[in-house]
Design goal:
By secondary structure, the chain is α/β, with parallel strands linked by helices. Helix content is about 35%, strand content about 25%.
Length: about 290
């Protein structure tokens, strides 16, 4: 889907097996920036290269023109096809330094963060050619560049990308989608990162991973406010249900909060429980204003 003169969005569907009986339909958006060369933001899950390359072909371009792959973070739906894309195009891979270990050693990522169906979602490890910290300007080619913004919370090395010339902001999973699965590492950092993004002016296009592109400053501002409100609602639900629940019974707390938020029962899973647990830490440190 063409969104601006240079930016195209690709919706990549996949399934997450949350149990032997249940699979959850999910999707993630990847993005292409067309210039003299082609620049890709996130790779999607394993096998997504066929979807991406087919789209490029339909635009009258060649997948061999892909020269850049920016990985916004290391989770399976963002790096799953990176190995094939790099092998087939020879592109330069960029990522934040705090995500490098999980990108370059996907077995270690699974050991540290055992996502259901991980090895069906991730093809394998891929080397990162260029590490970023946040604050850099990446000159991808003449007249195409982006500002790297470190937006931790969803993961410690998550980045957002600002293409000022296109008045476009790529936020990956930095924004929490109201009503969707709460998956993040640190709720305090998540809220702080969104507040950082709110300070950026003159944005006409918002590109995230979990929803179609949003256009118009008013809609973008509303979306960011909704995201903070959702995270604060989650935080309040966790604290309200935490009385009498011991740390070792975090899944019990997770089930209670999932019920209060009206999320589907399968949402009571370890990844969501870990997100909720970060609210207990934030409450203790008083890092979230009620």
């Amino acid at each position: 889907m063409k969104v601006t003169d240079q930016i195209h969005a690709i919706k990549i569907p996949f399934k997450v097996p949350v149990s032997p009986e249940v699979s959850v339909d999910r999707f993630a958006f990847g993005y292409l920036i067309f210039g003299d060369r082609i620049h890709l933001i996130d790779s999607g899950v394993a096998g997504s290269e066929s979807i991406i390359f087919e789209y490029i072909d339909k635009q009258g371009r060649s997948p061999k023109e892909v020269s850049t792959l920016i990985l916004t973070h290391s989770h399976p739906d963002h790096i799953g096809a990176a190995k094939s894309i790099k092998n087939q195009t020879g592109c330069t891979v960029f990522a934040h330094k705090d995500e490098q270990s999980w990108i370059e050693d996907t077995k270690q990522q699974f050991n540290d963060r055992p996502v259901p169906g991980f090895f069906t979602l991730v093809e394998g490890s891929v080397g990162v050619d260029h590490l970023v910290n946040g604050g850099e300007i990446l000159e991808l080619e003449k007249e195409i560049g982006c500002n790297v913004i470190h937006t931790p919370g969803h993961s410690k090395g998550s980045i957002s990308l600002l293409f000022e010339g296109e008045k476009s902001l790529f936020t990956a999973d930095a924004l929490a989608f109201p009503g969707d699965l709460p998956i993040y590492e640190d709720i305090s950092s998540s809220i702080a990162s969104i507040k950082t993004l709110q300070q950026i002016g003159n944005i006409e296009n918002l590109f995230s991973s979990w929803e179609p592109p949003i256009q118009g400053q008013e809609k973008i501002s509303k979306r960011m406010e909704e995201s903070i409100a959702y995270l604060k609602r989650i935080h309040t639900a966790v604290i309200n249900n935490s009385s009498g629940v011991k740390n070792e019974n975090i899944m019990e707390l997770c089930q209670k909060v999932v019920g209060e938020l009206g999320l589907p029962p399968f949402a009571a899973m370890p990844l969501v429980a870990k997100a909720f647990a970060s609210s207990l830490v934030a409450e203790q440190k008083q890092t979230i204003a009620h």
